[in-house]
Amino acid sequence: DDEWAEEQIKLLGELKFEQEYGGDFLSTSNTLIAGKDLELLKWQKPKLIVNGLNIYDEPKKDDIYFITVDQAENIGLDYTALSVFHITKDPEKPYSQVATYRSNTIATLEMPSVIQNIAQHYNNAFVLIEVNNGDKVPHILINDLDYENVITTESRKRAGLVPTLGVTSKTHALGFKMSRKSKRDGLSVLKTLVGDQKLRIPDFDTIQELTTFKNTGKALPSKNDDMAIT
To answer: 42: which residues sit within 8 A by CB, 6+ positions away?
Structure first.
């Protein structure tokens, strides 16, 4: 009865209760996103696929787009991946994933041109690149390809990582170097956005990865998390 169910939820937690008694097996017990929230994510077929880019929505004139890039550590083992997000002024549904790209064969030196082409297509989108494995990609984008809308970051003690636009100096990183704190903060925001239905995710690979993406910010063994990281 309801009284028993409430007591079990207190003991087990809502997600574990749904898995044990409600037949909810969409996620494991330690995933970042709860199964009930993952069920609300509806994947769609891309409207167009061009050179590995899955396009779910074409750019709208004068709208703002943002690209996040996760670089692969080893070619052939994990994926270099990116997501393109449309940012609106609608407080109900402010963010939408509109395009994705991932490859486990692309070389590091090829990636800047790929990013530039995608970014220019989406109204010269702002680009934030994870640089834990090196900053060659943003370096080429900024200095060789003269792409202006690359986000750099400056580390400030109390404020943490502060984003800047195209600033290059000894105190600035040419992208986003992920730390334990910044990853923890990012995971919290992602969980909130998905839970509050303020982030539309139509990409099948991204949704699939989120079903095995742990609350520690890593995938379950033998699973990928490159799209989830973006």
So the answer is: 202
Q: What is the 3-state secondary structure (H, E, C) of 85-136?
A: EEECCCCCCCEEEEEEEEECCCCHHHHHHHHHHHHHHCCCCEEEEECCCCCH
Dist. CA 83–CA 203, nearest whole Å: 9
Could you tell me the sign of the dihedral formed by the alpha carbons of 155, 119, 41, 216, in that order? negative
pLDDT digits 0-9 by tens, 147-169: 999 999 888 877 777 888 877 77
Q: What is the DSSP letter of 60?
A: P
Q: Which residue has the tokens 């007591």?
A: 7
Amino acid at 220: L
pLDDT, mean over the chain:
88
pTM for this model (two decimals): 0.84
Left, alpha or beta for 133 (phi > 0: left; psi -120 to 50: alpha)? alpha
Helix residue spans in 122-176 (DSSP H): 136-139
The 10s digit of each residue's pLDDT in 6-23 is 888 888 776 566 656 655
Q: Answer yes or no: are the C-beta atoms of 82 and 68 closer than 8 Å.
A: yes
Cα–Cα nearest to 26, from 35, 16, 18: 35
Q: What is the rounded distance in angstroms from the CA atom of residue 42 to the CA atom of residue 96?
A: 12
Segment (H or E) for 157? none
First to last CA, the chain: 42
